Amino acid sequence: MRILLDTNILVAGLLTPKGPPGQLLSAWLQGTFTRVTSEAQLDELARVLSYPRLAERIDTIQAQDILENIEVLAVMAADLPTISQSPDPADNVILATAVAGEADAMISGEKAHVLVLGAIEDISIMTARAALEYLGIADG
What we know:
Strands 3-2-1-4-6-5 form a 6-stranded mixed beta sheet. It has helices at 7-15, 20-29, 39-49, 52-55, 60-73, 89-100, 128-134; strands spanning 2-5, 34-38, 74-77, 105-107, 119-120, 123-126. It has 140 residues and is of the alpha/beta class. Helix 1 packs across helix 2 and helix 2 (20-29) packs across helix 7 (128-134). The chain has a single domain, classed as 3-Layer(aba) Sandwich (Rossmann fold). The longest helix is centred in the middle third of the chain and has 14 residues, at 60-73.
């Protein structure tokens, strides 16, 4: 199963490893699903992780390990289509990554511009908690 973890889910997973985003990050690293990403998303993730307010709260080694090994651990989507479903261009790049990477689902915490869509093409868009249930790994 191919899943795109939105950048906000990756960051939340690094900030709170025991919460739903962190559980998804662990599930991906354990091979429960294949993560879809793109160079554009990796650039965004590297930029966000360099923010001083985050850098002091995130395990630098874990963040660097994910960034350095992503191409081995994920499917890299290329030739992203033009998507204009969201008013935020950064969200549209992530949506395009899900489409180009033929994701089965997209996980996001972005309520206003992404989750509200419900789906992009045939790709379900859901919260981290819903994704844990979808994958059959929810705690309760």
